[in-house]
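Researcher: I'd like a candidate sequence for this fold, 148 residues long. If you have to choose between options at a position, lean toward the conservative one.
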């Protein structure tokens, strides 16, 4: 089994699950209710790999349609197709709206990281709880500005 398609696929699925903090769906596709290869929170991932290292892979629209349909059936809000060219590197195919959301989230995190701690707690004279409430409000406002 070491050189089988299933073994190669399982190796990719375990690698993806470990990298993103998800879990491999054991026996995915073999039951009517367990779908997808990796689940991480609300993210559904269908993994595709080549048996031997290659410079290309054919992406089929049916993969995308099926992943979207199955992610909804599994009550997952987002889905991706993970593609490997037969080496230990994965590339992700995602819908445009998900990509836009990821970019906004990344920008929001950068903006929050740039807020000086002193600015967050400014004015919290002797009241730590008030300071943390202001900190939370400042973080919320920063995130909201990115999403506007």
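Model: Candidate sequence:
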């Amino acid at each position: 089994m070491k050189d089988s398609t299933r073994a190669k696929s399982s190796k990719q699925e375990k690698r993806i699950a470990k990298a993103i903090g998800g879990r491999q769906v054991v026996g995915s596709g073999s039951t009517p209710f367990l779908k997808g290869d990796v689940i991480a929170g609300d993210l559904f991932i269908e993994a595709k790999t080549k048996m031997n290292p290659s410079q290309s892979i054919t992406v089929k629209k049916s993969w995308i349609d099926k992943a979207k349909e199955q992610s909804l059936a599994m009550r997952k809000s987002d889905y991706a197709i993970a593609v490997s060219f037969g080496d230990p590197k994965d590339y992700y195919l995602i819908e445009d709206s998900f990509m836009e959301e990821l970019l906004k989230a990344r920008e929001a995190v950068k903006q929050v990281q740039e807020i000086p701690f002193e600015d967050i707690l400014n004015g919290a004279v002797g009241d730590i709880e008030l300071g943390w409430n202001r900190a939370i409000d400042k973080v919320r406002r920063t995130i909201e500005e990115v999403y506007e």
